[in-house]
Amino acid sequence: METDVKFWEESYINKKTGWDLGTISPPIMSIINQLNDKNLHILIPGAGNAYEAEYLFKHGFCNTYVVDVSETALNNFAKRCPDFPKKQILHQDFFELKMKFDLILEQTFFCAIPPAQRTNYAAQMASLLSSGNKLQGVLFDFPLTENGPPYGGSKEEYIRYFTPYFKINQLKKSDISHPLRANKELFIKFTRL
Ligand SMILES: C[S@@+](CC[C@H](N)C(=O)[O-])C[C@H]1O[C@@H](n2cnc3c(N)ncnc32)[C@H](O)[C@@H]1O
C-alpha cells in the first residue's frame, strides 16, 4: 500500500496539523529523561515537527534520527534546530528504511498509518531493532474506526501485532499524557526478541 505523501505534505503546508502539540509530550520526555547513554542510536519515525528530536539533541543525544515523508515538516525541524546533523534527517518512507537502532520512540505514528499496514509496521519495527533493543512510547487507546487518521486501537490488538516479535514489558494506561490526550493513551515498552 502506497503512503499518501501528498496528504501529509499538504497538511503541513496548510498547517492542518491537529496532532501537533508544539512541544515534546510528557510521556516521551519522561522516557528520555530516564536514558543515561547519550550515544544511543534513536529513531523517531513519522517525527513530523520533531520536538522530541530537538529535546534529545539539546540534551546531548548525538545519534538521533528522524524519518518522515513530509519535507515541509522536516524543514520546519531543521530550521528550528540548525545544528542537528542533516544526515540524520531522513526524508523517506519508514517502510523502506534499512538501518538498526538501539531505541525507537513511537508517538502518533502508528495511528497515522492505514490499519491495513499494521502488520507491516510491527514487522518493520522488528527489522529496525536487534534483539534486546526497545520500542517505547505511546499508542492510542480508543476504538478503531473506518475514518482516520488518527486510527484507533486497543490493548488486545497491540498484543496481537507485537508479540510475534517483542516481549511486552509495559502496555498500560499513561497517567502523564498531555491533557488533550488524557485517558486516551497507552504507555508502551516492548523489547525485541
Ligand atoms: C499524526 S502525524 C504525527 C507527527 C509527530 N509524531 C507528532 O507527534 O507531532 C504522523 C506523521 O507521520 C508521517 N508519516 C505518515 N506515513 C509515513 C511513512 N510511511 N513514513 C514516514 N513518515 C510517515 C506524516 O508525514 C506525519 O508527520
UniProtKB/TrEMBL annotation:
It comes from Psychroflexus salis. Pfam families: TPMT. This is SAM-dependent methyltransferase. Transmembrane segments: none annotated. One of its GO terms (biological process) is methylation. The gene is tpm. GO terms for molecular function: S-adenosylmethionine-dependent methyltransferase activity. It comes from the Bacteria. Gene3D superfamilies: Vaccinia Virus protein VP39.
